[in-house]
Amino acid sequence: MFFHSYRVLSMILKASIFLFLVACGGGGGKSSPQSSSLNSSSVASQVAQSSIQGSSSSVSTEITNGLYTWWHDRADQQSTTEVAADKVRQSTIYEVRVATVKQADSFKNSFVYMSVPRSGKSKVGYTHEDGAEFAESAKLSMSWTSFLFDSDVWVEIDLKGGAALASVNDVTIRPTTLNFEKQFVDSDTIRIKVPYSEKGYRFSVEFESQQYISYNNNNGSTGQLSLNNNGYAIHREPKNSLLVFAQPNYTSDTRSELVPTGSDIFYPVEGKVDLSNVSAGIIYFKPGIYYMGANAHAYLPANVYWVYFAPGAYVKGAFQFRDAKANYKVTGYGVLSGEQYVYEPDKTNGYKHRLASKSDCHGDCVKMLQFQSSNEQQKLHLQGITINEPPYHSFTLYGNEHTFAMNVSEIQQVGSWYWQ
What we know:
The chain has 420 residues and is mainly beta. It has three helices and 37 strands.
């Protein structure tokens, strides 16, 4: 079973703005990042607080009245080159703040991540087409932000360096059926009211000044995408897209199901990680930045059955589970990113691009999440995570798929620049 990056699955949002599957504190609006503060005045705050088990030094978390946001202190705000292993890419186009409707004058900064074609790298180890050529030449980008909430909120968005906004009519929210209330703040800021939902929302915010039209230039047998109006129009979409992932905060019930507790837990240290000798059954990534490197992935020991990504955790790597357990879990609102890998990273070729002698690498290339099923009944609970920049398939299941059941919710994917 292969879940390709371009396919629309019930578990992943398909934003209408893409050809592919996509892609901290302070008072008042337009605030700047501030240090973390915790307020456990509500049950939801206590639940969220216990779900992170303490923060790493590179991430500031803000939990106030059921609203949970975070901010990465080690961020690189540029869109042209690869970022360092111990940093995350911050959007150069958008800034986002969130406040509860009940405390509409107390906005919290919500970190805005950014993805660019090939993660700012050139083609490494190959020269043939990989599907990212047009996105690279057109200088496209995908930005997104995530937060947890348990009541109605205002989401305030700044467009940096774009054409001035004239009214709320310059901003479209998709799906348009959401009919969220919009408020005009000033010439570069819009405010959106997001009502609480126990399923959360995943939506696109599209600014009129960011729209462009691509064309088929009719070259060759199928033509190629172009910005030049010398063919026929293909689509109209934002050059620099923005997705908002408004995730439902944990309740006491969902926390017990989705957030691991107990002594059988391994907590990786922020930085470079090697998970090959983990003796615990659960791996728990606290808020922070983790990376495996461009020439490694986590081939997990047979005892590992659950990987948890806390909100604010950003893990650069991929995970391969063994066929050893009846139940598996991959949960949490963190990010799993394939940005360090080249396109089609072949494990039998030192994680370099697949050998030219191979027509494909279905069996050997790195997958973001890979499972192996036996003839015994097994179940996977996949919830919450954001997958960024998969270098090949996002999810694969080998073996007997008829005995492998899945419960999937609140999953999203961004930065699917490559063909699959």
